[in-house]
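TEACHING EXERCISE
Course module: macromolecular assemblies
Task: Read the component lines below, then compare them to the predicted structure of the full complex.
Student: A.B.
Group: 4
Components provided:
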Amino acid sequence: MMTLNKTFKWFDCNRREFLVGTAALGTSLLLGDSLKPKADSLRVGEEVTIPTCCHMCGGGTGVIATVRDGVVSKLEPNVDNPIGVCNTSTGYYENSKYGAAMCPRGLSAIMSLYDPDRIKKPMLRTNPKKGISIDPEWQEISWEEALEIIQDKLKKLLDENRPEALITFSENSLFTDVQRDFCHLFGTPNVSFHTNICSVTRKSAAKSVLGVEEPLGDYQHCKFMLLFGWNPLSAVKWAHLPQIILNGKQNGSKLVVIDPRFSETAAKADKWLPILPGTDGALALALAHVIVKENLHNERFINDWTEGFKEYKEFLTDKTPEWAEKICGIPSDEIQILAREFASNQPAIADVWVGPGQQSNGFNASRAIFLLNVLVGNVDQPGGMMLTEEFKLGNSPIQTSQSKTKRFDGLENFPFGHRSGVYVEAIRHLYHQSGPYPLEVAFFTMSNPVLSLPNSNIVVDALKKLNFIVVIDNYISETALLADLVLPGTIYMERSGLVTRGTNWKYVALRQPVVEPLFGQLPEVDIFIELANRLELKDIQGKVAFKDISYEDYMDYRLQKSDAGITLAELKSFSGAVWRSNEETQFEKYKLRNNKFHFSISTLDLGNVDKFPVFRQRKWMPDSNYPFYLISWKHISHTHSRTQNNPYLSELKNQNFLYINPETAKSLSFNDGDRIRVNSPYGRVTATLRITPGIHPKVLGTEWGFGHKGFGKYAKDKGFSVNHLNGLLSDEITGQALHKEICVNIEKL
Amino acid sequence: MEDKKLTRKKLLITSLLGTLGLVAGELIRSSNNIEEESDKDDDSSVKYGMVIDLDRCIGCNACTIACKQENNTPPDMNYNVVIEREEGEFPHPKKKFLPRICMQCDKPPCVKVCPVGATKKLNNGIVTIDYEKCIGCRYCMTACPYGARSFDFGENYNTPPNSFESTTYAEYDQFYKRDKTMPALNGVRKCHYCSHRLAEGKLPACVTACLGKARTFGNLNDPESEVSKLASKSWSLKDNLGTKPRTMYIGEWKEERGKRCVNQIVYGG
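Instructor-supplied answer key:
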C-alpha cells in the first residue's frame, strides 16, 4: 500500500547511521496500527528526480528537482554540488555529511514556474505612445511572426552597415556566452550584462590589490571575520555562505560587522559598528594605521610578497583613529581595539561587498579593505582571503572577431571598468543623444533597468528614444512596458547552462531543463542562436556560425575543451550532474606564480586613479535641505527586483518600509507606521515608516526591489523603489552604478 | 460573496481562539497533572525529536518555504514559522529568530480535546492528524499552546490553482491533492516532522534545506545520536505547561524561556 519507497542515491552519502535506523523503522512504524493505509490512496504515475542548478539569483546553488506526472513537485538541495555545501574542498568534505542547503528563493521557484502572471506568448506593441502608465495595447503574435519582425529590424542594421546600433543587456551568467558570440558575429561591440550595476567596485579593487576579480574568503577556517557593508547571512548568493560563516563562528572565530544598518549578519556578530555611509575607506585606513604603527603586520609576508609597503606606511602616517573617528563616527578607541583584535586573531579576513561599493568612493574603500588581508599576510592560505580562480570552460566553438567600433557606453574611459559595460553611461548617452553613434535596437534579457538603475525617470525617457526594444522576461516588467516586442522567457527549470562560479576549487555543474518550456517558448540562448541562423551570421571563416550547433553542442564543446575534459553526456551522468576536480583547493598559488600584491597602483597611466587608496568623502553628501543618507539592502526573501511576484516570497515580504532610528523619529515627531513622503532633488516617493534601533541615526534605509508598476498581482503597487530618488550616477573609476549614494528629507503625508 | 464568508469564518475563529486561549493554559496544566499517560505500552525503539540551535538560525525562512512546497500548504498556513523580534537600543540592538513547528508534545493537549480521535500520538513520538476522521471542529487549535495548528479553508494562491497547487503531494502515508473531495481540505493541519519523508529515509524538509544548519533531527531513544546529545542541554517552549515537547531548542533565547517568551508566541501561522 505504501507508495513512498524511494531512497535517493545522493542521500546515501550523508547521515548514514541515522538512515539505517530510520528508513526501516520509520516505514514499519508509519504502517503500524496508528495510521491505517487508505483504500483510496492516490497513485503516482511517474516520478523522476533531475539534478540541476538554481537560477533564482546568480548563485547557481545545486538543486534536485522531483517531477511527478510532469509537474515539478519538489526542489531539494543537491549535495554533490559544492554550491550549498562549502567553497573549499576541505570544507566540502567536512560539511557534506550534513547535506547541502537551499535558500527560500530557490525553494519558492516552483511557484514562479507555474505563476499564471507569466508572459506566455510573444506580444507586439500596437500603441505607438510609450510610458510606464500607458497601455502598450499588446497584440499576441506567434513566435514565427515575432522572430521575423526582429530579423527584419536587425537585417536593416546590417544592410545599412551599422551593426553597432544594436545593444544588448542581460542578467549575469544567464546567457552571456551566446550573447557575446551573437554580438561579435553581428558586428556590434555593445554587449553588456548585470555586473556593473552590482559589484564591479569589489571586482576591480580586488583585481588591483590581489590580482583576482572575485576573491572568496575561507570563512569556515578563519579566526576573525571583519565584514564591511556585506550581509552574507541574508543577502545570500551562494547557499553555503551562512553555513560556513556560522561554522567559523562555532569554531571560535570572532565576527565584526561594519554597516550603517544592523543587518541579519550583524545580529549574529560579536560586534556591530554602525558607520556613516561612504566612510568605510577611512576606517580601513585607520585600522591599517594602528596595525602598522603597533607593528602587528606580517613583516615577512610583506617583504616577500608585496610591493609598495614603505610608501604605504608613509601614506598611513596621518590616517589616525582620531582622524577616522571624525569621518566615520566610530570612536577612536573602538578602532584601536578592532585593529589589534583583527591583527592578533589570525587567520583574519577583511571583506567588502556592495555596501561601500555602490558609492562614489567605493573603489578606494574596497582597496583599503582588501589591503588589510595583505597587511596581516592572510592571503590564499587556510582561513584566508583566497585567490579564487573561476574554473575555465573551453573557448566557444564559434570563431568570431570582436568589433573594432567604439562601445556606445564609453567603457574605455573607465580605468577599472568591467567587460559587463557601463549601463548608466549607455542610458545617459541615449538620453542626451550624446553617444558616438545613434542606437536603434536594444535587447533586454531578464533585465529591468527601469527599476534597477539609478533614476528611473531618466531611464524611461532614454528608452523611449530607441527605435525598437525587445524584452525577454517572465513578466511584463517596467522595462517591458516600454518595449515594442516582448518574448516570454524561461524559469531556470526550463533552461540549460553550465555553472562554474563561487568556489575555491574546480567544479562544473549542469543546469538542465527539468520540464519542457511551459509555453513552447524558446529558451533565451536559443532565441539568439535562431536569430544568428536567420541572419546567416558568419564566423571568421565565412561559415554560417551556428548552422549545425545547438546549445547542447556548444556546452559539450566547451566542456571537452576544459580541464575537466568531459562530454555533456558524461556530466549529465555524474551524480548530481556535477564534475568536481580531484585536485583539492590550492593554497599559496601566488608562490608558484611569483605574484606580488600591490599596496599602490603604479603600473598604468593613473589618470583619475589614486596611487594609494586615498579617502575622499563621496560626492553627494547630506546638506540642510536633504539631511539624511538613504541606503538600501537586499533581504533573503527576494532577488533584486525579480521575485516580488512569487506568492510564497510575497508572504515572507510583500512590501518595503522606510526604517528610521528611534531618536531621529522622536526628534521629528514621527511614529511607527506613519505614511511619509521621501524627497530628493531627483524625485519623491511615499513610504511607510518603521522605527528600529538597528539603524544609524543619520541614515534612513529600505529593502531593495519593490515598487513595481508592472509584473503581476503579488508585486504590483507594493512598496517603493529608491531609484526614483537617485541621480543617474556611475563611479568614474569602475563604472559601477551608485545605488547607495542618495540624500533625502522626509515629511509627513 | 464567498470571500466575505471566509473572512467572517476566520474572524469568528480568531475571536474564539482569543477567548478560549485565556483558559487553555490552565486547562492544559490541570489535565496533564491529573491524567498521567505512561509510556509503558511503548515498545518502539525510535522516538523522533528535533533540536533547533537558535545561535545558528539566521531567520531566512528556508524552513518555512521548504515546508510549504513539501506539504503544499495554502496561503497563510505554515507548519513552520520563524518568529522575529528586534529589541534593545541603538547602538546595541538585538535581533532574534525563533523557528516554531509542531512541538510533537509527549503530553499533547491537542490529542485530549479531539472529539473524534483524529489526532493521535504515535509511538514514534509524532502527533498525527487523520484527515479522514477530522471533522474540522478546531478544538485542537485552541488547545495547542504553540499555535502550531491551522485550518485549511481550501484556498489557493492562484485562482484557479496552478499546476503545482493542484498536483499530487504526500503527507503521512498518503498522497493528496488540493481537491474538494480530499479529506485534508476543511480540516486541521500541522507539522508531522514530514513523516512521509522519514518513511523514505529522508530528513524533514526544513532540516534538509536549513541554510544555517541549525536543525538536528533524529532518534531520541538512541543516547549516542547527535540529537540526543544536544537534547540533554536543550530547553523547551512553555515548559511550565508540562506538555513535554520533542522539538527543543538550544541557544540564545534560553535565558528568556520564562513568561516573557511564552507571551510572545502567537496563535496561528
